[in-house]
Design brief:
This protein is an alpha+beta fold. 34% of the residues lie in helices and 26% in strands. The chain has two domains: 68 residues; 111 residues, Cupredoxins -  blue copper proteins (Immunoglobulin-like). It is elongated and about 70 Å long. It is found in: Mitochondrion inner membrane.
């Protein structure tokens, strides 16, 4: 569950989010070390007036500044690709959840069973955009989510499940989740108009 004033990730409720957090922490530390070394290097050169080393040729320096970024990028890219592969090989989905994003609400459909929010007028859909109509999914089961948009760009974000999926008109994007028992609260992550801030969504895994 999200809490006011949080500065870290929400408690994860899926194996994928746990893996993402495991990848994030060393990458964040690596970026902090790089920024810190550059920042204190600049402070040292400005306040302690160290003289620059004049050199027309330095093979070792060229090797370092060519190879070091490659090593850093490879150390980030390799586990990221492993996570992408893992996400696509979670197993055969139990069923498919189809979602359509609208200004400013979400419509859901479990396989071939239509949800009732397609039948409501705009005022009632505004009420539905509150967390009164959550999506119910079985916990511990693999579920595929298909997402598209009926109007403008949207983005489905569920931090505790590790889901951030763009919703594009005329295109169907998909992802797979396998969350544990939890209540996952998310929102639209794409600026989609005046009602963007009032477009929450909740998933209850039971």
């Amino acid at each position: 569950m999200p809490f006011w004033g949080e500065s870290a990730f929400q408690n994860f409720s899926s194996g994928m989010m746990s893996s993402l957090e495991t990848l994030h922490d060393p990458c964040y530390g690596l970026a902090g070390c790089y920024f810190g070394s550059c920042f204190f290097g600049e402070i040292w050169s400005v306040f302690f007036k160290s003289n620059a080393i004049l050199s027309l040729d330095s093979l070792s320096l060229e090797v370092i500044w060519s190879c070091l970024p490659m090593v850093i990028l490879a150390s980030v890219a390799f586990p990221s690709l492993l996570l992408l592969s893992k996400q696509e090989t979670l197993g055969k989905p139990l069923f498919t959840l189809k979602m359509i994003s609208n200004q400013w609400s979400w419509a859901s459909e479990y396989d071939h069973h239509n949800s009732y929010d397609h039948l409501l007028d705009f005022d009632e859909i505004e009420v539905l955009s509150n967390l009164e109509t959550p999506v119910f999914l079985p916990s511990g089961k693999v579920v595929r989510i298909l997402l598209s948009s009926s109007d403008v760009l949207h983005s489905l974000g569920l931090p505790s499940l590790g889901v951030k999926l763009d919703s594009v008109p005329g295109r169907i994007n998909s992802t797979i989740i396998d969350g544990s028992s939890s209540v996952s609260i998310g929102s639209c992550y794409e600026l989609c108009g005046t009602g963007h801030s009032a477009m929450p969504v909740s998933f209850i895994l039971f």
